[in-house]
Design brief:
374 residues, alpha+beta, nine-stranded mixed sheet, 10 helices, 39% helix, 28% strand
Length: 374
């Protein structure tokens, strides 16, 4: 890494990059179990947990693909395969530009694969070079790493910089269809994956996902409003105003990260002291923040939209309904959580730094078991 005063840093060594993505592979494996624990506690429905788990799996696929892309970093001369850039100060995640480039690569993956030798052909040629020429087949290894990268992009659905809205049927009540609309972005300012869940009632004549007018407009509207700096109440009110027959009842935003690690990130304050004091085993020096913002509609009122027409508008619970200090964030409630291995948690419990008392802790125990702590 270089540029110690910069927020972004480059990883240019293949072994370090593998350790970086191995760490994320372990972390994302734990996050699905955290979602299951939140479901057990009643903070998430089964559908909510399944949707969030799907995005976590997609994020893991993104990291696997990037791991293949940079598998030979620092091993060959010249500009390729480049260096992985990540945000080591604010998020600990790869910078958003990495995902934007990956999306472009995915558009051309089929063409690249058609021009590359097969994995079997590459391995046969490697053996011939090793046995016959007594050289390490570095160039062939790079070619194979790129083939694996493009295959990963073709075999699944990664977490993109923009993951457009999808919809899940939730039933019907009072003649209205109920939907869970979900989407996600990789925020370009914070370099963090952000998931949105919107519970909406539909009083339109045509089912929402089959409505050629409302569905594309709603998708475009939600993606344009998916900015981390916007408060949930601002997003919900804008949606409520623009779509008279779609009634937002609950909007949630989940930030996955930042990720702190004494091996990779520069952190200051209590979390730095905790990780330093823990002296964890290799691969256990991390902590990941998970923030859940929640906005609820407490009631609705009828407002006139013309001389002879009216519609319903939602009144959202913020401020005193959500507790002291929540009026400024424009949400009904906000829950901050910290996922970490046992050793860092023990150091946190011993130091008891200010500001962590109200943070939920999820401790990763033996065998990946999640232990919820207050």
């Amino acid at each position: 890494m270089n540029g110690l005063t910069d927020d972004h840093a480059e990883l240019y060594d293949a072994a370090i990059i593998r350790r970086y993505f191995d760490k994320f592979d372990k972390i994302t494996g734990h996050l699905g179990r955290v979602a299951a624990e939140l479901e057990r506690e009643g903070q998430l429905s089964r559908l909510d947990a399944r949707v969030i788990g799907g995005y976590i799996q997609r994020l893991n696929l993104t990291f696997q693909a990037l791991g293949y892309k940079y598998l030979m970093a620092g091993r060959i001369d010249g500009p390729l395969p480049g260096k992985l850039t990540f945000d080591r100060h604010e998020s600990g995640f790869p910078v958003a530009q990495e995902l934007l480039v990956m999306a472009n690569d995915a558009q051309q993956a089929e063409r690249h694969l058609s021009q590359l030798p097969t994995e079997v052909e590459l391995k046969d040629e490697m053996i011939r070079q090793i046995v016959g020429e007594l050289v390490i087949p570095t160039r062939l290894q790079f070619t194979l790493s790129q083939r694996l990268y493009y295959e990963a992009l073709m075999q699944g659905v990664p977490f993109w910089a923009r993951n457009d809205p999808d919809v899940q049927w939730m039933g019907e009540d009072r003649g209205r269809r109920s939907w869970l609309v979900h989407w996600a972005v990789y925020d370009t300012q914070t370099n963090l994956p952000v998931i949105y869940l919107l519970n909406v009632e539909d009083s339109g004549k045509t089912s929402l996902p089959r409505d050629d007018r409302r569905w594309p407009q709603m998708q475009a509207h939600l993606m344009a409003q998916s900015v981390d700096g916007l408060k949930l109440v601002t997003i919900a009110k804008g949606f409520d105003t623009d779509f008279d027959d779609l009634h937002p009842k609950r909007l949630r935003r989940i930030h996955l990260g930042p990720m702190y690690s004494s091996s990779f990130t520069l952190q200051s304050g209590p979390i730095s002291d905790v990780l330093a004091a823990a002296r964890p085993e290799p691969g256990q020096d991390w902590a990941l923040v998970w923030t859940l913002e929640d906005l609820l509609a407490e009631r609705e009122e009828t407002v006139k939209t013309g001389w002879f027409s009216s519609t319903e508008r939602q009144i959202f619970a913020t401020g005193p309904f959500g507790g002291p200090g929540l009026a400024d964030i424009g949400a009904t409630a906000m829950t901050r959580m910290l996922v970490m291995p046992e050793r860092p948690y023990q150091a946190l419990a011993e130091k008891r730094p200010a500001g962590f008392a109200d943070v939920r802790k999820f401790v990763v125990g033996a065998g990946g078991r999640i232990i919820a702590q207050r």
